[in-house]
Amino acid sequence: MSLIHALQNKCPKCHKGQVFNTKNLLSFRPAAMQENCPHCHYNFSKEPGFYWGAMYVSYGLATLEMAVVYAICMTLGANAVDVKNLVVSILVVLILFQFNFRMARLIWLYLFTNVIES
Ligand SMILES: [Zn+2]
């Protein structure tokens, strides 16, 4: 799995076509995923319910982001049990919702591309 190609929204097979219609993964617009790679015609929709597993990746990303925000708050001198830390962490995760959605699907697709093909 190439995380750089996933961050660039590239096809896991040819690394040239785009998986999502938008090039900017940080866009706030709702994500639209293409059915096939425009370059190599690799099928991105493996089977019904394939992307349900991406929820686990999204959960991990959100947890990581909350931990980073919490660490930053602690570095800036916030109290360890302050509710503000939780509020700021939740706000950051909500702001990054579209990014997490796209990255979770891309990581999930990259994880299973070689497994399904072999
Ligand atoms: Zn491709």
Number of domains: 1
Largest sheet: none
Multimeric status of the protein: single chain
| Cα end-to-end separation | 15 Å
Which stretches of 5+ consecutive residues score pLDDT under 50? none
The proportion of residues forming helix, as a percent range, comes to 40-55%
Averaged pLDDT: 87
Alpha-carbon Rg, integer:
16 Å
SS elements, strand count: 0
Distinct small-molecule ligands in the complex: zinc ion
Structural class: mainly alpha
Strand content of the residues, in percent? under 5%
| Helix/strand order | HHHH
**What form results from the Cα inertia axes?**
elongated
Number of helices: 4
Task: Report on this structure.
There is one protein chain. This protein has 118 residues and is an all-alpha fold. It has one domain (3-117). It has helices at 3-7, 54-75, 83-95, 97-117. Helix 2 crosses helix 3 (83-95) and helix 2 (54-75) packs across helix 4. The chain is elongated. It binds zinc ion. Zinc ion (ZN) binds next to loops.
Short description:
This protein is an all-alpha fold and 118 residues long. The chain contains four helices and no strands.
Topology:
Elements: H1 3-7, H2 54-75, H3 83-95, H4 97-117
The protein binds zinc ion.
Features:
118 residues, mainly alpha, elongated
